[in-house]
């Protein structure tokens, strides 16, 4: 069945660097007699048509013209920065809810599944770019065009699906910004107490408002590279020092539970899914690369970055839980001795790293909200800066008023991250696959995608239920190890 093409919808902005692309495309987009879209190369000679889709077999990345493209190293730093946030520090607490061996092998398995879903998202983006003559697409647009060219009953739902994805992205990324903000404030307060200065968390939050506001006035992803590089280096340095504590006087593995109870597994799932928080930045990073083909190669940026991330997650969770057992808190920095200088250095390094990571997490919701809001104003740049200021203030208010942000973020991880990372990518893959009925191995692909969707949906429902029960106190205690 040939896909049904509609007029290209330009109402949703690309999730791209606002200083890149400038609306230009290296190839011209034209319609042929049957209404299908074709791309004409710059030498004005059309490439061979794909008989299945009626489109030109031109790699969509050839149509990108970027003023400030990112290098492979830039992208790898952003990839690490987008994943090595506060989630990795909560991994010992996650292992406490799963058990030592269930946590270890479960984290490895979920890392592989999440990485595979990231690949699905990028590959579907490329396929849909070819169908619709686009040089790049945002996450929400990938979902829109997947439904638009899918089965006839799904096509009217395309616009709603796009809005749903954008809503989940905004909730997830702003939730990450809130916990990043509070994490920095809590760790800086403990550092100040070590130095003999007694200040409440709210005061530290207020002082942090100025550097965060200035940092988030940067609109270019390329210009955020120094902060991502700084954050990645400091995070790895902080983790290296933390391992000096984690690896000292380790007890035998029999001192901790190999398998935890079924009742706490949903909390483990929510915490791990919150830790794998990089799904929202995958397409923006790939869209802004100077050599985007290097992103999903077998030894490319995505596999390299996620291999590093999954190994670090597993190691911190394994040794952190083995070291502190049932006393593991929501952040491993809170288990370090308060009277030790090295422990305070770890808190400082991780606080600065998370502070620098805030800007990258903030970048995603701004690329969604800014075009929608600023189109109503004559001076769009001024309106965007005001929007950025208001959004930073919103994260300040949420960080200040939410009594236990750790539990709140477990809910955000179960609701938003599980759907964005595990449910939507295989669903989009099935819809993108729909017009190609003769694809080799189609039945196995459908079975694999269906199993991932079922796994993500179960995690969504059980993780959300357990998090809500914890928030409203029906579980008896705060199992998430909140940051407060």
Automatic annotation (TrEMBL):
Residues 68-467 form the Amino acid transporter transmembrane domain. The keyword Transport does not apply. Its main location: membrane. It comes from the Eukaryota. Signal peptide: none annotated. The keyword Transmembrane helix applies. The chain crosses the membrane at residues 98-122, 164-183, 195-215, 227-247, 267-285, 297-321, 341-364, 385-402, 408-434, 446-465. Pfam families: Aa_trans (PF01490). It is a multi-pass membrane protein. GO terms for molecular function: L-amino acid transmembrane transporter activity. This is Amino acid transporter transmembrane domain-containing protein. It comes from Anopheles culicifacies.
């Amino acid at each position: 069945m040939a896909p049904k093409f509609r007029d290209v919808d330009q109402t949703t902005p690309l999730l791209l660097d606002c200083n890149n692309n400038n609306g230009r495309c290296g190839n011209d987009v034209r319609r042929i007699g049957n209404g299908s879209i074709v791309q004409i190369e710059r030498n004005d000679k059309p490439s061979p048509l794909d008989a299945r889709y009626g489109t030109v077999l031109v790699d969509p990345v050839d149509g990108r013209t970027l003023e400030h493209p990112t290098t492979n190293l830039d992208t790898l730093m952003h990839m690490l920065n987008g994943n090595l946030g506060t989630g990795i520090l909560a991994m010992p607490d996650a292992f406490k809810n799963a058990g030592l061996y269930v946590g270890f092998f479960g984290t490895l398995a979920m890392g592989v599944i999440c990485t595979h879903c990231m690949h699905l998202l990028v590959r579907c983006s490329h396929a849909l770019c070819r169908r619709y003559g686009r040089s790049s697409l945002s996450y929400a647009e990938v979902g829109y065009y997947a439904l638009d060219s899918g089965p006839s009953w799904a096509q009217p739902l395309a616009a709603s699906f796009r809005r749903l994805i954008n809503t989940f992205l905004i909730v997830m990324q702003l939730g990450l910004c809130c916990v990043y903000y509070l994490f920095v404030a809590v760790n800086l307060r403990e550092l100040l107490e070590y130095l003999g200065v007694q200040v409440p968390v709210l005061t530290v939050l207020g002082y942090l408002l100025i550097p965060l506001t200035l940092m988030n006035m940067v609109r270019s992803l390329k210009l955020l590279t120094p902060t991502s590089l700084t954050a990645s280096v400091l995070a790895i340095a902080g983790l290296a020092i933390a391992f000096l504590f984690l690896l000292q006087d380790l007890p035998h593995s029999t001192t901790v539970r190999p398998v935890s109870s079924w009742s706490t597994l949903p909390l483990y799932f929510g915490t791990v899914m919150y830790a794998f928080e990089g799904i929202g930045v995958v397409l923006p990073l790939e869209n802004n690369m100077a050599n985007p083909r290097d992103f999903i190669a077998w030894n490319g940026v995505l596999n390299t970055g996620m291999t590093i991330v999954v190994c670090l997650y597993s190691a911190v969770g394994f040794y952190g839980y083995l070291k502190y057992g049932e006393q593991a808190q929501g952040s491993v920095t809170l288990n370090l001795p308060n009277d030790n200088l090295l422990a305070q250095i770890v808190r400082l390094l991780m606080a600065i790293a998370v502070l620098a990571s805030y800007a990258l997490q903030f970048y995603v919701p701004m690329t969604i909200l800014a075009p929608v809001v600023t189109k109503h104003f004559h001076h769009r740049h001024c309106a965007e800066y005001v929007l950025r200021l208001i959004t930073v203030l919103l994260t300040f208010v949420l960080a200040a008023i939410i009594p236990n942000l750790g539990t709140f973020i477990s809910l955000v991880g179960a609701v938003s991250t599980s759907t964005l990372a595990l449910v939507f990518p295989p669903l989009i893959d099935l819809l993108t696959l729909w017009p190609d009925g003769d694809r080799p191995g189609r039945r196995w692909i459908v079975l694999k995608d269906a199993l991932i969707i079922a796994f993500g949906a179960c995690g969504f429902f059980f993780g959300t239920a357990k998090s809500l029960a914890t928030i409203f106190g029906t579980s008896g205690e705060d199992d998430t190890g909140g940051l407060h």
